[in-house]
Amino acid sequence: MKTKNRALFIDLLRALALIVMIEVHVINELLNHELKAGGWFTALNFINGLVAPSFLFVSGLVFVLSLQKGTDELKKFGTTFWKKVSRIGMILLAGYSLHTPYFSLNKLIIHWSLLAEKQLFVVDILQCIGIGLLILLLARTLLKTDKAFYLFITIALGVVLIASPIFWKIDFNSFLPIPLASYFNPANGSLFPVFPWFNFLFAGAITAKFYIDYRDKNSEKEFARKLIMIGSGFFVAGWTMLELLPRHNAEIIKPHPIFFLQRLGVVLFLLGACWFYVNRKENYKSFMMDVSRESLLVYWFHLQLIYRKIFVGKSLVELYGDQLNVYWCILVTIGISIVMIYFAKLWGWIKRNHPPISKKIVFAFLTISLVMFLLNGYFYFDF
Fold first, then answer.
1. C-alpha R_g of the chain
2. Is the C or the N end of the chain the one with fewer CB within 10 Å?
3. Which has the closest alpha carbon to 297: 340, 350, 354?
4. In the predicted model, what is the mean pLDDT of the chain?
């Protein structure tokens, strides 16, 4: 197997998660609510519920793999360290920008309320990933050995696993400001509080260690087989234990260790299956790789198309929320996916072939956005 084909299976899993994520947001927002009562939707909802665990898992896995190079410079807080911090900062900025109730500092000040405050500080998957990667970066930087680093991750996973059911019962608002309290449980509307969702990111980070070991021994095929076997075992065990538990709502099941075990099993199985799919032939190529490598852009931009008021002053949700049938939802999903694929390919091409231009574009976009955020409300333009 050629070196350049290595780890493409990880990119494939992340790309699949992103494409299904588009479907999730379209179905959740645009599908007629009466159609969601059917039994087919329960099955679809389970599949859709695998998107976040997969995305978090791959984020931890890829980040730890990226830390294999430049370790010495990292520990000196050199260029490598600050590049990672900058990337994490972009993830957090993108996450909070998606929940800003008004794209205007003036409006935020005028209409500031508890509701607006909670909406702004809702912890979504990007914030969860950003803080998780920051923890991994600091641990990799401060801990001297690989053994200490992976031991830390394992202990952190265990702590989150045990603490999650307890933390979901605590009112953190009573002693922490909302921006911090929102990270611990969904009481303020957070969709992906770090408890329990950190577990999938940390599990990905631990899996990176085993992948590195098998890769260095040129035994990736064995690694993929074990992923499928272990993943299947986890899924069956988790499913069996959930069936034995009394029926509860999602607010009780989500922080439960069995919820993590079952979903992790599926993710491990899918990762192993992706390895066999990618390596069925030499020189695997697919547009899915562009989607994966520009994951932050695809995630942020597809949400703009769904929620931002860019269609005659309204968003797709305002125009067609809870109104479309299954076929129209499929067409919308395909349409947005095609736009994302070509946008990712274009941006990836610019970054590879014209790096200085890509940096100028990012700088210009951030600068213009900041100026508009500061001035919006004083002038005519409004978003």
1. 21
2. N
3. 340
4. 87
